[in-house]
Each structure stands twice: as C-alpha cells, then as structure tokens.
Design brief:
The chain is mainly alpha-helical. The protein has five helices and two strands, in the order ααααββα. The chain folds into two domains: 40 residues, no CATH class; 82 residues. One of its GO terms (molecular function) is ribosome binding.
C-alpha cells in the first residue's frame, strides 16, 4: 500500500509539472515537514540534522531523477576500462559520501556539547 501511494504521488507530481506552465513546487508530506524544519533550524547541530534528513530523503528518489538520462562518463581508453560510471552511480556515490560527512559532523557537535555539559557540572 505504501509503495502504491508513493507511485500515485510521483504520477501526480509528473502530471502537475506537465500540465501547468507556472512554477509550482509539488511536494509530499515528508518534503514539506523537512522544508519547515530547514527554515526553523538555528543551531549548527539542527542545521546539520536537517541537511542529513534531506539527503536521506533524496537517496531513494535519485533513480527517478535520472530515468530520462543515461549519461556515461569516464571512458578511459581503448581496452583499459569499462564504459564508465553512469550519472546515477556518480550521484549515489556523492550522496553517500555527503551523508557520511554529515554524520561525522553531527557526532563531533554532540561530543563537544557533552564535553561542555560535563564542564558545567564540575563547577
């Protein structure tokens, strides 16, 4: 049922984009919630957490973004390498790397916050 709802939502988004000449942003409930959180995030940790959530949200949607394009890049030389990475594979790798970096940054911020908290407790 959930996969069905996602497909219906995707079809509606595509229909609206094709039928309307205006610049209308069609988003689902999760995207709306993440957008609201992004607008209200004030602290460094909050901004990092929202950024991480947005990247995690985009991960399964990458395949839908590149279905109309099958670009290949990195063709090495004759017989040296395969045809190269598709744009989808490149984007997945970049997204995965960015998620790893964001998680590390969030861990650093949390460790620093805990260190400051312990320092205040010792006063």
């Amino acid at each position: 049922e959930n996969a069905f709802n996602k497909q219906v939502m995707q079809n509606l988004q595509n229909d609206f984009r094709g039928a309307v000449d205006l610049e209308i942003k069609v988003i689902d409930r999760t995207a709306l919630i993440l957008d609201i959180f992004a607008q209200h995030a004030k602290t460094r940790e909050g901004k990092l957490q929202v950024d991480l959530a947005l990247h995690e949200y985009r991960k399964p949607r990458l395949t839908k973004m590149w279905t109309h394009l099958e670009r290949q890049s990195g063709a090495g030389g004759v017989g040296l390498r395969g045809p190269g990475e598709s744009q989808l594979e490149i984007d997945k790798r970049l997204l995965r790397d960015r998620i790893i970096v964001l998680k590390r940054k969030i861990d650093e911020v949390q460790k620093q916050r805990n260190l400051h908290r312990k320092g205040r407790e010792n006063l």
